[in-house]
Amino acid sequence: LKKKISSFMSKSVSIITIANHVNMSHTTVSRALNNSPLVKKSTKDQINKVAKELGYRTNFNAKALVSRKTFVIGIYLTELNLGTSPIFLSSIVNSVKFSLPNGYTLSVDTIKNAQKDRVIENHKIDSALVVSQSVEDDKFIKLLEKEKFPAVILNRNIQKTELINFSIDEYSGVVKILEYAIKLGHKNFGLIKGPSFFESSFFRSKAFFDTMAKHNLNVYDYFVTVGDYSVGSGYRAAQQFINKKTLPSIIFSSNDDMAIGAMKAFNETGLSFPKDISIIGFDDMKYSNFITPGLSTVRKPIGVLVKDGMEAIVKLLNKKNVGETKRILEAAPIIRNSIMDLRK
After folding, report:
1. Domains of the chain by range and CATH?
2. 263 three-class SS
3. Confidence of residue 232 (pLDDT cuts 50, 70, 90)
4. Which residue from 162, 169, 300 is spatially nearest to 229, judged by alpha carbons?
5. What is the model's pTM?
């Protein structure tokens, strides 16, 4: 019964109800509830307090009609299936939810679908959080820039853009963890690449080969395989290594999912980590510390990246100064038990 009364009261309380309680015009109350700069802070506080006590709830459908807003924030990725880990995607969505403004909902889709549905031209969203993984996304990014649309580009470092762009220095993170392995005495390295159309795969592979060249270490062609960032592709890549007469002492897998798949394949042949072969991943997904042995990897601070992006979007929606528009976060090596110390 209490729930029904509360529900009835929240529906029946209007701006006029609040205006009568505070003895002010409904225009002042409306402005205060919409955080208008035309109303003093003390007045806003008084009105918001009374609104809360009366159980007033904003009618976002009506507000959308008046303000011409959709109250939808679009999250767009290059891919949702091939190359995008479900855990990576869920990490992004969960991080966004913590920073989502009151009354807003999310729309998650690919950049291709966003272009096809003309979400920007048709004003289907109020702002966009673009998790770019490929140069193929640049057409959509240029459209956002041209339309001066409130958007934040995450993940990739876009060289020439006026949009807010937060990215991660993946290259340096790979170099650091590989040089750590070299200090432990490793000389024979294997590589499991990611999908070629992902820019992250390019930089992680480049960091690998640059580090090998810097330390005068040869990489045999048969110690390099290609996956698609999925667990299954890591499993198949490891089987290709197993079919060779010799194995590298250590493998760098371009993401944790492929590393997990590779570990399963090697375990099935009786090989153990890190005694028989060492392995390194990338991303530092939540499960990486809970497998045996714990996976040494490079931590990609996706939670921090998304949080920073959402904070910028909220400021854009409220027409506030965002401040720093370009930021590159560090990807840090995380050392666990999957790398053998060959100096002993």
Report:
1. 2-57 (1.10.260.40), 72-169+302-330 (3.40.50.2300), 170-300 (3.40.50.2300)
2. helix
3. very high
4. 300
5. 0.79
